[in-house]
Specification:
With 155 residues, the chain is of the alpha+beta class. The protein has a single domain, classed as Hotdog Thioesterase (Thiol Ester Dehydrase, Chain A, Roll). The chain contains 4 helices and 6 strands; from the N terminus they run ααββαββαββ. A hairpin with a 4-residue loop joins β1 and β2. α3 packs across α4. The chain is globular, with a radius of gyration of 15 Å.
């Protein structure tokens, strides 16, 4: 297995936003931590991410959950030296309070992603699973929870 650094994943996320998914480039989430267990990223509350109530816009929250839930799949694909086809099939969100500060998105689903990746390598089939993401404000209070349905295939 290959070592994958935080810096290299930050660069890949930047390139993904610049060339493939423009809303990522617009929102500019910041990757704080990525390892075998978890992903943490931050979306800054600013003019681009605010709604008319001075809280984080739904779309910006969705971008944060999308990246936190999916980036780890690309992290493990890089570690195993594989190419993957990855997509979200579904998403369920519970908004518990307004996100009135910078928001941190955390996914501790490394084991789920690795299991899906290994199963796809063994069978050659597309694997579907669920990844959970928690959004917290700067005080550590949970502002939203996301349940993301992932679809992953090693190509």
């Amino acid at each position: 297995m290959k070592d994958v650094t935080l810096k290299s994943m930050q660069w890949k996320m930047f390139l993904l936003g610049f060339f493939k998914i423009p809303i990522l480039h617009y929102v500019r989430p910041r990757l704080i931590e990525i390892n075998d267990e978890k992903v943490v990223l931050k979306v800054t509350l600013r003019r681009r991410t605010k709604n008319h109530l001075n809280s984080m816009y739904f779309g910006a929250l969705a971008v944060g959950a999308d990246i936190a839930g999916g980036l780890q799949a690309f992290y493990f694909a890089e570690r195993y030296g594989k190419k993957i086809s990855f997509a979200f099939k579904s998403s369920t969100a519970q908004f518990l309070k307004r996100a009135e500060t910078d928001t941190f998105f955390e996914s501790n689903q490394g084991a789920v992603i690795v299991a899906a990746l290994k199963k796809s390598m063994e069978t050659g089939e597309r694997v579907n699973d669920i990844v959970n993401v928690i959004a917290k404000n700067t005080n550590g209070e949970i502002v939203a929870t996301f349940e993301m349905g992932i679809s992953l295939k090693v190509v």
